[in-house]
Amino acid sequence: MPEHIKMEIPSQDVSRIIGNGHSGRKVYGTAIRLVLASAIAGSVPLFTAHAQTTVTPVPGFPAPTTHSQQAYSPFDTFTSRWTRADARQIKARSNPNVAVGANSMPTSVTMPDIPANFPQTNPDVWLWDTWTLIDAHANQFSYNGWEVIFSLTADPNAGYTFDDRHVHARISYFYRRAGIPASARPRNGGWIYGGHLFPDGASVKVFGSTTLTNNAEWSGSTRLLKTDGNEVVVFYTALGFNRTADGTNITPPVAIISKANGTIHADLNHVWFTGFNNHTGLLQPDGTYYQTGQQNEFYSFRDPFTFEDPQHPGQTFMVFEGNTAGERGAKDCTAADLGYQAGDPYAEDLDTVLNSGATYQKANIGLAVSTDSSLTRWRFLPPLISANCVNDQTERPQIYIKDGKYYLFTISHRTTFAAGMDGPDGVYGFVGNGLRSDFEPLNWGSGLALGNPTDLNTAAGSDFDPDPQQNPRAFQAYSHYVMPNGLVESFIDTVEGRRGGALAPTVKIQISDATTQIDLSYGQNGLGGYGNIPANRYDLDFQGFVLDLLQSRTSSNANISLASFVQQQ
């Protein structure tokens, strides 16, 4: 039996199969062999199914697809679907009678309004996608008394616009004293800008001799390798562009999921990093599971998030954003992608959908597994979920485990939904019994977990060109990341026409089985502090602390309080 097949049977099923005495053991052994043979063949789920939450269809709308939450081996070929029947539940819950420009979505899944007088996190950089220093289980760590975050940044004074920042993106880091409540910090969160994380010119090396006009560093995740040490590894997306002066692609962009190892340092006054000189390309899309630039120059392949699955100890997995492989616009969505129940009077006709333009939207959430202890070699596994003919972007996916349930969170835009679909910018989520599951979309089977205030009765516009009749906060925040205890951080994009590039107020969602709702008791009417991104664990590296004090020659400042260094979060 291959090493990657791990048999797990719920205890109640083991008791039922084992029975009593020798005959029970014989039955048990026979059953195990039968189930294992089927599991290896990829045809039988490994965990007990869960009946989907009962959803009463809204008059005039279809019922959502039935999803069991059933878990499969991560190495199975099963891919769950976020279907058109599921996504139509978003519009079903939208109020068609609100005033123009109001919020038509339920308050329970709507992020409160961000004030237009929001503070800039730092005047010297725009920042957007932000993540934390985590371990293999997504706990957020402070290091020797300092909280640390990582963000995509760009220079607001370099001559390009806010919307051109993506091709100039660099990963930077910020830090602040740990353990200080949001109410005792500056309004902007008190984050100190540390500078670019990687040395200049280091990340471009992964492209070798490929012809590029410029390269960028896009989102990922940062792992603390040992929770009593200072070694870190950054998984990120290296993007290479070969474009004309007006931004037209000469050749498709090159996206390489990559990693670099470095060391974190801190003394009593600041945080800094060393290393990150050697960058290793890990994965490029294969054209079988994940669409390539040759198949579609507008493909998505980015945002690696790595973790260890407690159901599969010793193995490290990665989720990432992808697109379903195949030629751009190919009319190959199926009835299963539509997901309507038999006889549903509000079901769409497959040919009508295929001819609507919806086939240009084929997002998926990919999965890979590391094949070595240094996390340098990886192999693709089939996608965890697809959104064919539903949406084209499932960005920054993450696995969040709570009460034994596996939540797959992602973010998406209103403007990337397929023809006939609609939903706000924000967080979308799915729940199952394992890493690979027949994921049930959260909240009425829709998938919407937390959206910006949006009027789905009014045209979308965009963050850079909003429809004047649209809610002025429809694009207020994006790139949400769900943190421990249900806290959610994001960045400010556009509020009442004012562009952001700053950390948004943190909010909190209550997560229970297949539902989420905004916690309006958190902060001020649901809005916490700007950039309130607290560590929930601490790393005390005494040896590193002493060496860093000596290196920075600040030992004469010993009168500075060490309270933040020893404070437990």
Automatic annotation (TrEMBL):
**CC cofactor:** Ca(2+)
Protein name (record): Glycoside hydrolase 68 family protein
Q: Give the transmembrane ranges.
A: none
Q: Name one GO biological process term.
A: carbohydrate utilization
Gene3D superfamilies linked to this entry: Glycosyl hydrolase domain, family 43
In this chain, Ca(2+) is annotated as bound at: D392
Give the site residues for Transition state stabilizer: D303
Pfam families (alphabetical): Glyco_hydro_68 (PF02435)
What Gene Ontology molecular function terms does this protein carry?
hydrolase activity; levansucrase activity; metal ion binding
* Organism expressing this protein natively: Novacetimonas cocois
Mind listing the UniProt keywords for this protein, alphabetically? Calcium, Hydrolase, Metal-binding
* InterPro entries linked to this entry: Glyco_hydro_68 (IPR003469), Glyco_hydro_beta-prop_sf (IPR023296)
Please, which domain of life does this record's source organism belong to?
Answer: Bacteria
Query: What family does the database annotate?
Result: Belongs to the glycosyl hydrolase 68 family.
Record: active site: D129, E395
The UniProt annotation places substrate binding at W128, S219, R302, D303, Q393, T394, E395
